[in-house]
Amino acid sequence: MRSLLVRRPDFLYVLIAGYCLLSIILKILRPDSLEIDESEQALLSQYLLLGYGAQPPFYNWLQYGVVALFGISVASLTIVKNGLLFLFLLFYGLTAGVLSSSRLGPAVAVLGVLTLPPVFLLSQRDLSHTVAALFAVSLFLYGFFRALKNPPNLGNYLLVGVAVGLGALSKYNFVILPAAALLAILPEAKLRKYLFDWRVLASVAVCAVIVAPHAYWVVNNLGHATGVTVAEMKEGADSALLPHAIQGLVSLAVASLKGVALTLAVFGLVFYADLGKILRAESLWTRVVGRMILACFLIIAIIVVAMDATHIRAKWLALFTALLPLYLMLKIDAAGLDPARRLPALLSIAGVLSVGVIVMLWARVFVGPMIGDYSFAHTPFNGFAQVVRAEPGPPPVAILVDDSIVAGNLRIQFPDTPIILAGISQEAERRLPAGRILAAWSPEGRGREEIPPRISALLQLMPATIAGSKPTIVSVPYNAGRPGDVYTFAYVWADVR
Predict the structure, then answer these.
(1) Residue 370, in any domain of the structure
(2) Which of 40, 228, 372, 470 has the largest count of CB atoms under 10 Å?
(3) What is the number of domains present in the chain?
């Protein structure tokens, strides 16, 4: 296979399609309990809204559309994520093909990007909006460099506008990338002319049309859109040992290093014999991409200082560290090196990392319980659903919960029943149907044996008549767990007239 990739570089796209397909299959073969982001997507796929809270809505809209067509299931959730991951890798390779003089340049770039932790690890473990934003990054890079490499063409400018619009609807910090790209080409006289072409107005217009509905929502819900992210960026500020600006910049530096260290180590190991030549090499495109990376992190540093942020996570920088493998490929290309001899080693490392992670995540479900290691995948929501269905009486017309993970998982188990997250799903609360309602929660934790306050308040607001004086508490065996290991659930029935 490694020699085949050297002979037929386009075989790369068959490999990444197989990788994404394998990820989908292994996810479906696991128990149907969801992780954190997956639970959120399952819950929110009930609604088509202009905004959903702290994250932009592009991924939610995609998920809503897929669920509307095919129904809610683990398959419909994982197909959206891996479909976007495939498109990210596809357009990343196409971008490398636009810029590289070597037919193997795209393979080097794509295999390099598969060594980034947000790509081979976090995207498979539990990311959603970031995966959509990575797709928008590669689509933007493809449109942007196609526009710069060819005579001015309206189609390329429109593609850039679409990519920026989708990126802004995927992650708010995406807008840093096109700003950095514009700064990066300013010093190049032969590229500056593209900024002053009338087609830029068409690009801006199509971007504005795409983001306008959500922008309207943001203006009217600014606190919901930014509050959570700002709070996370200021996490630990009260106990910071250094001034906030210094603490934030140190956190940014550490997060940046975490994001790129492995990729730098892999390229250093594979191309160690030519490191000096690669470091000295330069071209128009290494300068542009290098400035883009530098401008991105300078803008982030300014934001960190201006916001008094003290805590930066490596995954927040994924959109910008994704530029690194492209830059390294261009440096290799500028050095005039033929990567054919090194490609098998790079393929082996990227393959072990990417395929190894999805196999490990699948195997962990079955190996973990042997040592008492239980995760979200083991929580037996399917067993709890069987207990509920065995109860006498009609099925619930709605299910009330106070936890988003419980909400998303019960959406999988009861696909035709509205799931209402107390305090969050206001639209659903206002349209609550009359009939028999199930309130469910996990009783694990202090005071959780009784009806949780948020659920109780909602039941009183309806108003609802609760059947029985005490919640029912049941113990259900873990998915793939050891004999005797159980997880507890609590529930009550209520009637709304």
Answers:
(1) no
(2) 40
(3) 2
CA–CA separation, 395 vs 316, rounded Å?
42
CA separation for the pair 33, 74 (Å, rounded): 8
On whether both 354 and 394 belong to a single domain, the answer is no
Separation CA 414–CA 203 (nearest Å): 44
CA 331 to chain centroid, in Å, comes to 29
What pTM was computed for the model? 0.94
Check: CB of residue 491 under 8 Å from CB of residue 441.
yes
33 close to 378: Cβ distance less than 8 angstroms = yes
Q: pLDDT tens-digit profile of 158-190?
A: 999 999 999 999 999 999 999 999 999 999 999
Q: Per DSSP, what are the bridge partners of residue 441?
A: 490
Using alpha carbons, list the distances in angstroms from residue 30 to 193, 208, 364, 401.
Answer: 53, 41, 10, 24
What lies within 8 Å, CB to CB, of 2 at 6+ separation is: 343, 344, 347, 348
Residues in the chain: 497
Return the closest-CA partner of residue 65 out of 81, 82, 48: 48
Structure token digits, residue 409:
């998982």
Do 27 and 139 have their domain in common? yes
Q: Check: CB of residue 471 under 8 Å from CB of residue 463.
A: no
d(CA 11, CA 60): 32
In sequence order, the 6+-apart residues with CB closer than 8 A to the CB of 10 are: none
CA dihedral (423, 428, 434, 438) positive or negative: negative
Nearest alpha carbon to residue 167 among 155, 153, 180? 180
